[in-house]
Design goal:
monooxygenase activity; Auxin_biosynth/cation_transpt; 670 residues; signal; FAD/NAD(P)-binding domain; flavin adenine dinucleotide binding; 19 helices; alpha/beta; FAD
């Protein structure tokens, strides 16, 4: 009996050692807290693991010079909260108005400490379930056919405590410094450790490796105290106002471009960093040479025994020695904690710092593993804002909605409305929606047609990359066609080599809307849901396959698409052409006349007047309609004697045969 009990205890011990949660979230940065918020609001079983003692530990250190480049526009002239989020790049989504970032900083480019305070309050006020001081050091799979995805995720922390979860949400960001190894790279200081005191650089000559915002941020800090600064990188400088990508160089950091182009000693160079080599002389100066000069040589022998480029080319650009070399090459994802069974693979080319994921944010190698936040930026790298708070707060919500449908049978949120409200619904969204505006080309509103196009179902901010999977991913059907509403820049307007300030860069006439350059709404119409093959074969740089019809709403200087003639009328006519119906609104008098003179009433009359719905008429409203030319003033006309209008006069502006009396009596039923 003792042997049996002992054996049972041994078998039970491993199971008891695991702590189970449906959802495990790695990282309590902005994306991890955003995911936790949605899970908590849905009443799900989850836990967030954070290796530090507080949320947002990355922002406690970075950026090193403590100024964020995400804008904090506190005033827009509007009270619409959704619209204002278009210009608030720091707030996370929540129901609590106290948790808007404008309450934490008055600066347009806030101090990073304000972000740390904000994230601490976000986690505390919303009572999010975060387990601090827990570093997950290993993640593997445990196959189990009873699990949601056919396996559990097993997490092990620094104390050898084991956790099991059905879904793993990775929100750790990219925090491992990018390092390039070359001869002499041991003399290079990293962005993560270099001094931020400008006086430490007084009278020195500095070389910076890299050309992103961290490199220019470092240069900006020491620009006024150095002899000169040189910056070298593999690629040319990319200005965010030219590429329309917020991760490229922002104007707040580009002071060195002035001193370079205005010939004040500083300069930019292009070259492959792996071809470089650094040699240190007896005075501690650092000399730049090329790797092939050091072949079969001992770099420790000193600079005197090493061939330098200037020995052959006496005007070599970096012939002057440097006092310091600083590496500012950005960050990459930490793959080290994931077991090979998860098949977490880096992306290809310039996306190799991110894990490979699908447009749904799910790992390509493991079902049930989703990557959120900055680490998911491979989906829209250099295209949209998915790597930044003002972008991934919306993609995180989209992933949550996908999970709600997959594991809990909760369909994607939608509203069902009569087709007469379609124009107004689209106009409202393109003028207010922040998710469409920030995640242009990535998230879209989808309009599903219903009941022979007499109604529509409106889904907000769905990932266009998985449009072909819409029915399975959302729990909604699309049997009768659909519209997809996107925000886009002009096809050839963005790029590092583009002049975005040229004359006649903007379009103002509706007939030329397809040539719009600045961000503007684009509506795609499909008679059926595109297939996976059509998505793969879509034209280059197109977010979607070729539609049955497409409509551009002309760009607007104020990003206010409410002009009746330039914006609303062309959109309404496009929708009418696609649906083969009349989407205009009518007064009751017009609907009554249509009932007498037409075989079929317009949808507005069918869904309103014929069902005794709509606004009650009044003499004041009738006069307004007459003054606006919307109604004929029959009430004021003298129809005595021969002047009473004939049948032809009544049908003059409302062509069509007179309907039989029985049809008129059945108008309400129709």
């Amino acid at each position: 009996l003792r042997l049996v009990l002992a054996a049972g205890a041994l078998c039970a011990a491993p199971a008891a050692a695991f702590i189970y949660h449906d959802y495990c979230v790695l990282g309590a940065g902005p994306s991890g807290l955003q995911a936790a918020y949605f899970l908590q609001r849905a009443g799900r079983d989850y836990l967030v693991f954070e290796r530090s003692h507080a949320p947002g530990s990355f922002f406690a250190i970075y950026p090193r010079h403590r100024k964020l480049i995400s804008i904090n526009k506190r005033y827009t002239g509007k009270a619409n909260g959704e619209f204002n989020l278009r210009h608030d790049w720091n707030s996370l989504l929540s129901h609590d108005p106290r948790l808007l970032f404008r309450r934490y900083s008055r600066q347009f480019f806030p101090h990073a400490d304000a972000m740390v305070r904000y994230l601490e309050d976000f986690a505390a006020l919303l009572e999010l379930r975060v387990q601090y001081d827990t570093a997950v050091v290993h993640v593997t799979l445990d196959k189990d056919p009873q699990a949601w995805n056919g396996h559990y995720f097993v997490l092990t922390d620094q104390n050898r405590q084991h956790y099991k979860c059905s879904v793993l949400l990775v929100a750790t960001g990219t925090w491992v410094p990018n390092v390039v190894n070359f001869p002499g790279s041991e003399y290079v200081e990293g962005y993560e450790t270099v001094s931020i005191n400008p006086e430490d650089f007084a009278g020195q000559t500095v070389l910076i490796l890299g050309r992103g915002n961290s490199a220019f941020e470092t240069a900006e800090n020491i620009l006024g105290v150095t002899n000169f600064i040189h910056m070298v990188s593999r690629s040319r400088v990319r200005l965010s106002w030219a590429t329309h990508y917020v991760g490229d160089l922002r104007a707040i950091n580009n002071g060195l471009l002035d001193t370079y182009q205005l010939k004040s000693l500083d300069g930019l160079l292009e070259g492959d960093l792996e071809d470089l080599a650094i040699v240190k002389d007896k005075k501690g100066k650092l000399h730049i040479t090329l790797r092939f000069y050091l072949e079969n040589r001992n770099t420790s022998a000193g600079v005197d025994s090493v061939t330098l480029p200037q020995d052959e080319l006496d005007n070599f650009a970096t012939r002057a020695p440097y006092d310091r070399v600083i590496r500012c090459l950005g960050w990459k994802f930490d793959f080290s904690i994931y077991n090979r069974s998860l098949r977490m693979m880096p992306g290809r080319g310039n996306k190799n710092k991110y894990p490979q994921i699908k447009p749904s944010h799910e790992s390509r190698g493991t079902r049930g593993l989703f990557v959120l936040g900055t680490a998911s930026h491979s989906i829209d790298f250099r295209k949209s804002a998915g790597g930044f708070i003002h972008g991934f707060r919306y993609t995180t919500r989209a992933v949550h909605r996908l999970l709600e449908n997959r594991h809990h049978g909760v369909p994607w949120p939608s509203v069902l409305r009569p087709v007469t409200q379609l124009t107004a619904a689209i106009i409202k969204r393109v003028n207010e929606a922040s998710g469409l505006y920030q995640m242009f080309g990535v998230l879209a509103d989808v309009v599903l047609l219903r009941e022979n196009a007499t109604a529509f179902e409106y889904l907000e901010e769905y990932p266009v990359g998985i449009l072909a999977e819409l029915e399975t991913q959302t729990g909604r059907s699309a049997p009768e066609g659909l519209f997809v509403v996107l925000m886009e820049y002009g096809r050839n307007f963005s790029g590092a080599d583009k002049d975005v300030f040229y004359y006649n860069r903007a379009v103002g006439e509706a007939q030329h809307a397809w040539q719009s350059n600045f961000l503007h709404p684009v509506i795609y119409y499909y008679k059926r849901l595109p297939t996976e093959r059509e998505m793969k074969l879509r034209p280059p740089d197109w977010p979607l396959p070729r539609p049955a019809a497409i409509h551009h709403i002309v760009e607007d200087f104020l990003t206010d698409w409410t002009a009746p003639n330039a914006h609303i009328l062309p959109l309404r006519r496009f929708l009418e052409n696609c649906l083969g119906t009349d989407l205009r609104s009518f007064f009751a008098e017009s609907c009554f006349l249509f009932a007498l003179t037409r075989q079929k009433l317009p949808p507005f009359c069918q869904q309103g007047y014929a069902r005794t719905q709509g606004l009650a008429g009044s003499e004041r409203l009738r006069r307004h309609a007459v003054a606006a030319g919307l109604l004929e003033d029959f009430a004021a006309a003298d129809f005595s004697g021969d002047e009473f209008p004939s049948r032809d006069q009544l049908l003059k502006d409302h062509g069509g045969p007179v309907r039989p009396l029985q049809h008129l009596l059945n108008a309400k039923d129709e």
